[in-house]
Amino acid sequence: MTSIIEGIQEQDPVAIRLASQFIGDNFQTPFGKIIRSKILNRLKNVAHLISRDCCQAILLAPAKFAGDSYKPQEYSKLIKLVEAIKKVQ
């Protein structure tokens, strides 16, 4: 995952797509808090490069927590990424 994080920083389209899919599809995995946080921070900086289909999956990710009393720490970073995506769409 470290190389994917570095790839996002370098604006590598494959790394951005893999990271976007990971966040959109697997945000509720019980492990990887630090990795998810780093990925979310990096994706926020390249939100304009995220493909439309990956954007849709990320935009829907917060809805998975509707009604949950517990939200993971990185949930706030997910919201910031969603806001960044909405600005560039």
Strand content: under 5%
Helix content range: 55-70%
Quick check: average pLDDT?
90
Rg? 12 Å
Q: Give the assembly state of these chains.
A: single chain
* Biggest beta sheet attributes: none
* Count of separate DSSP helical elements: 5
Structural class: mainly alpha
The coarse overall form would be globular
Low-confidence blocks of residues: none
Give the strand tally: 0
Distance between the termini: 27 Å
Order of helices and strands: HHHHH
Write up what this structure looks like.
This protein is mainly α and 89 residues long. The chain is built from 5 helices and no strands. Helix 1 runs parallel beside helix 3. It is globular, with a radius of gyration of 12 Å. The mean pLDDT is 90.
Itemize the secondary structure elements and their pairings:
Blueprint: H1 2-9, H2 13-26, H3 33-45, H4 52-60, H5 75-88
Helix pairs in contact: 1-2, 1-3, 2-3, 2-4, 3-5
In short:
The protein is an all-alpha fold.
Short key terms for the protein model shown above:
mainly alpha
